[in-house]
Every structure is written in C-alpha cells, then in structure tokens.
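New here. Your pick:
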Amino acid sequence: MKSKQLLLLSLTLLIAFSCKKKNPEPEQPQSEEPPVPTLDVVVRPESKVIDTTNIALLSDSAQIQAGTIIYQFSGTPDVYNTGDVIVESRGEGFIRKVLSSQVVGNTITYDTEQAKLTDVFEQGSGSYQSELKDAWVYSFNNVNVYNSPSLDVTLDAGSINLNPNIQLSFNIENGAVTYLNCEMANAPFSATVTATATANGAANLLDFEKKIATIKKTGIFMMGFVPVVVVYETDLIATANLNASSQTSGTISASYQSNIDAGVTYNNVSGWSGSFNNTNGQLNYNFDASSTVTYNFTVDITPRVSVKLYGVVGPELSSKAYLNYDANIDIESNKDETLTTGLNFTAAVDVNVFDYFMANYSQTYDLMGPYVVTRPAAITMISGNNQTVDQGSITPVPLVVKVVDSENDPVPGAYVRWEVLNGDGSLSLASTTTNSTGESSNDYTMGSNASHTIRATIKNGSGQTIGSPIDFNLNLGTAAPVFEFVSTYGFSFPDCVLPDSAYIYMAVAGGTPPYNFSIDGGTTWYPSTNGSDMFNYGPPFYGMPACGTYNCKVIDNVGGSVHDTITTTIVVQP
C-alpha cells in the first residue's frame, strides 16, 4: 500500500467485490423441477383487447394508475360491462377490470381496478427473452454526484456493462398460475471507475442515495390473440454513508468483471425457490489519499432489473456490490484499516399481476465474504549490517529491509521511516517505500565517529510502531591515503618513426593498490607495468603510441571494487 493512502469519500466503488469466497454458496433447490408442459392458450371471454387504430387513449399514466381510463371515439363505441377486462398495448400497456362506465359525447370513461393475468387467460403458456445484442452500457465522465460546502464527489471516468439476458416464462392452468420463472442466464457484468472526493474539513454524509441511470426496453409477445406487454427497466442506484475527520482529498480507481446466473422460480406444488451464482469474478483496485485522516464509509451500487407486465412490476433481480471501509491514516505511516466487501443478490417477485393466491417472494444471497486489505505486520533486515565504512564514504552495501503482512507475504508500498540513533553521518532519505517484493533500501554517508547505528521503523495509522525496529550497526574504517599523480609525460623522437621512440608514462602515489591505467578515457584498462604504482605505454609492453592527445585515467581498488579515480591529459608530440 502506498504511504499516501486513500480518503475515499465517494460512493463510486461499485466494483469493490471481494475475490475471496469465505461464505458458503447459497442453498440451491434440492431437486430439479420436472419439465413444465406448454399449454394451449384459452382466453377468457371477458378479455377485451383494444383496437388501438380506431380509438384514442386520453388518460395519462397517473390517471390510469388511479383507475380512470378515458377513450375518445368516433361513431358508435364498444361499451364494456362491469367485470370485463380492458387489455391495452400502448406505452407500457395495462390490464384493468371495469367497475363502471360513462359515455359523454365522443368520450367514454371507465372506472377500473388492477386485473391479473388470470383474469385475461383461463389457460396458456407465455414466454419472452430479451433481444439484446449488446450490453447495456452506463458511462460516466467528469460527473459531479455530490456537492456541499464540506464535500465534493466527482466521477472522473467510468463505465458499467450489464447484459441481463432476461428470460421470463409462466403457465396458467384452470385459472391459476401454476408455474413462473424469471432468470438472468450467464449475464456478463463488468465495471471500471475512477473517482475523486475532496473534503474541506470534517465531513459527514448520511444515507445519500442517487439514481445514476435508467434504461428501459419494451417488448410484446402474443398469447393467442392477446398482446402481452413486457418492460425491462434497469436502474443504477448508488447509496453511501461517510464520516471523515479532517480536510483531505482522495482518489480511487477500480475494476471488476464476472458472469452472473440468477433467477427465481415458482410452481404450485413446491412453492418458491431461487438461485444465484457468480463466476469468473476478478477485482483490481487502487487507493490514494493526500493527508492524515480518520474515516469510515459504506457504499453500495445496485443495477436493479425489474420486469413489468402491463405496467405492473412482477419479478425483480438486484445485484448489489457493497463495501465498508474503516481507516486511520497518518500520512507518514501505514494505514490501520479494515475493508469488508461483498456482493448481494436479491430475487423478488410481486405477484400483483399474476394471481390472487400466490404469495410475494423475496430472497437475498450473499456470495462474497470479508476481505481485509494487506497491511504491514513486521519489518525484517535483508542486508547492510556490520559494515566497515571509511569516513566520508557511502555504505558500499545499501541498508535493505523487507516489510511483510501477518501471513508473511510482502507488502508493496509500505512506508519505512529511517533515523540515525548514534553517529554523525547522514542518511540519503528520511523515508522510503517498499517495492513489489516488499523491500526498501537506503544509503548512509559515514561520519567521523567510531561506531554508527541507523534504525528502520514502520508505524500504523495512529503513529504506533509495528513490530520490532531494525537497527543497522556500522564501524569506521581507515581511509585510503591521498590518491594523486606524481609524474605524467609523453615523448617521442622526431617524426615518430624509430623503434622504441614514443612513450606515455604515468606514476601515482597514495590510494590502494592494485592500480589500473587507461589512455582512452576509461574504455580500455591496463595493469601497472614498471612497479606497482607506475605505467609505461610503449615498447616493449603495449606497442608504440601515435603522436597526439590522450585522456588518461587511473583507478585504485578496495575489496574488488573501484575506490577512486584520477584523470590527466598527456600529449605525445613529434
């Protein structure tokens, strides 16, 4: 986890589903239902299908819901009697049982009540499948979803793809519903989101709810000569609760994808049953925040698919992603946090349009379990202890620690504090963060004291030390003597043509042998020749140099690695 951690004030972590299933699978039906026979359609004589080409509907949706149906006609109208059922296919459609009627001029007004499918059909099988070639897509771009003097929440970017693949079927036999099934079959669901929230001080957001989007699809299938109107409506609803202790800003980005199989079934023998399965779930997420803060938030977002028959909601399938996050963050420490996520699915049926004798049904499944974000539990030493370092030199071996969680797995992005407990040297960095393997390193420049102690510590969101600090002990070494040239020259006889006529000579003092010499700026290196601290480029050693200018370097050595380098320029003239 990065040291600068999240204040997620937003209601946008719609895809923070845990990938660890710790709760058992929901109970499935103990035995498969026998095949449901397909029944020939028998329409009740009281059913009156409106000829929409010859009569105008004047009532608006509010009047229809209140039971008042007004038509405008020309010529002699058909006046329906008490007990007749009006079947209307315009808009979302409706089926209404006539209580009374009144003709005034060229209008007729019916006082009605809601009818059932069994008021229209004595017998029959009905089925409908959504004809969706592409997923329903919700897209967001720089959408402000909440704003107040203390809090601003913006969806920077995001999209949700849901193809419900709804299938609906039912049987009516002897004037009663004997079978009903509504399901989402292998419905793909994916989402990505990036959101930013800024609190200008302590913020408290309670029971906030927002409908982000609504999508409708209307279809009609025929049962005999009667049109059955089906409306699928998907609402994307987000809710949130939040408490933040101080001014801060936070960003979250996350993505999730899965396939959902879910449904609800009724038959007149065994009653109601439901099922839910979520497969191939994958979660990726990232948190970031800008300041020290204590906060708690609860968010959920629900794509809710409802199926209406003749304008009356029947089955409803809701897939709710929920998240609860508690954190105490010191911007210079590691988060002290708990994240609980999950996925609830609710299958419900309101039987108002189906049958007087069926009972409403609702069942919620929770497939996901708690998931705790990885956080530091201990720090261990990897390398760099007990080195001997010369005054003014940087530790040849870096000081390296590793941060692990409670299961001894590496924690990337953990915040490590460094301090000098003893000694007069200096650290390269006051704090570091761990890499993907949980490791973090620092360098130390040696002072003049004989011994030095450097400490590495990790702390939680309250600033308390986690585990045991790591102490590195270093000892002062003996510095190498001054490293310098004492003699350098190049010479040749006239015209540079005689054998043994041109030389480059270098001699050094100080440093730590063995020495290596270069005449080409460090591309090619040669060991010393005439003694341990001298080098002669020319016969009989390396051939005769040409006349010209040479960039010469010398390196000495400590323990197999370069200790210091000196340079000079030597000109060989004719």
Remarks:
- Helices lie at 61-66, 117-120.
- The mean pLDDT is 81.
